[in-house]
Amino acid sequence: MKKSTLFKNCLAVAIVNNADEVIRDADIFVENNQISAVGKNLTVQADEIINCENKIALPGFVNTHHHLFQMLTRNLPSAQDAKLFDWLVYHYEIWRNITPEAVHISATCALSELLLTGCTTAADHLYLFPENVSGELIDAEIHAAKEVGMRFHPTRGSMSRGKSAGGLPPDDVVQSEDQIIKDSIRVIDKFHNPEDFSMCRVSLAPCSPFSVTSELMRDTAKLAREKKVQIHTHLCETIDEENYCIEIYEKRPLEYMESLDWLGDDVWFAHGIYFNDDEIKKLGETKTGIAHCPSSNLRLGSGIAPVRKLLNAGARVGLAVDGSASNDSSNMLQEVQRCMFIHRIKSGVDSMPAKDALRIATRGGAEVLGRNDIGSIEPGKAADIVLFDLNSLAYAGAMSDPVAALLFCGYDHRAWLTMVNGRIVVRDKQLVGIDQFELKRKADKIAKGLI
User: What is the pTM of this model?
Assistant: First the structure.
């Protein structure tokens, strides 16, 4: 049975089209799971009419890189001030005991937090598969995404180089290449849906240059292209990684990736902080994607990615919260704000206008994930819409540009309403059908057991 919704009298609607159009006092008409019309004074019949006075409407944010399972190990005192490699080694000793129940709860919590802060599509990088539960973990998070109503891009991650082979992770959380390839095929065949408006698209994602072999990198790329799915990994996040690649492979990280056939419009890298100018040019020419993770990079002291240069070169750039234990939240609106501000230090005060930060968080993320059916509020696009309430003192005096006010002003990052694929999953700043306090209780109990 089809359902229609009319969002009436929005204070402003950010279309995020090529002209960065914003329509004041506008309506949005949704039929089933698609946007049918956007404009002033729409005259239509709708099953539900929602009064949106003092609300601004945006395309749902797209989170291009996460580690949902890390939600249970946020804010651990012993890792609060560690840099990446030390941080990883410490956490691996806890994560090696992860269970399907823990993954399901952590995914439910982190995805719900994303929905509450305006995110409607999320990619996750699950690379940790302990020996006794390996096949069940990614299935658990995919089921969690379906339950909460998130448009999901799970990446079947992998690690094949443990401590005994010179890697960072314990040997009992890495797998053989045969195991990884076999399960990658299973996950794609079982869950991947390439159609428009798909709620689940799978990618393949070896973890990093220091936790997988060159053979696995090559074989993963070959399999992904046979299956017509994307490939993803961490790259150029720290100087330690750069030094590792030069010492082990005698190549800089991007040069190493290129030697393994890991450039192109079906590839995206997380972080991308330490690219030089020649590498940035190459990323633009090949249309390779970057998931920019400002909060995590600040928290770990890793650095600031050259986003303005990447955009100017033509690379695809999206936004990401990164792992819940290196960000300590899954707050997507906060990520957009930090993206806008930190690049004013990196590249000049005029280098990152609010409209550009919003574009990276919406259309940019859609492009990184290879989608043209999400990322803007236009007829024919998926009904992934988020509304924020500006009727508070936090925005007093800022209504000359209400969309930019969301980033320059305010302190309540909760979406007033979040719709994914035509389904309302957040209403009046509350999750629909999920008891968030009971969810927290369960998460805290499991986290305590892990730690």
Answer: 0.97
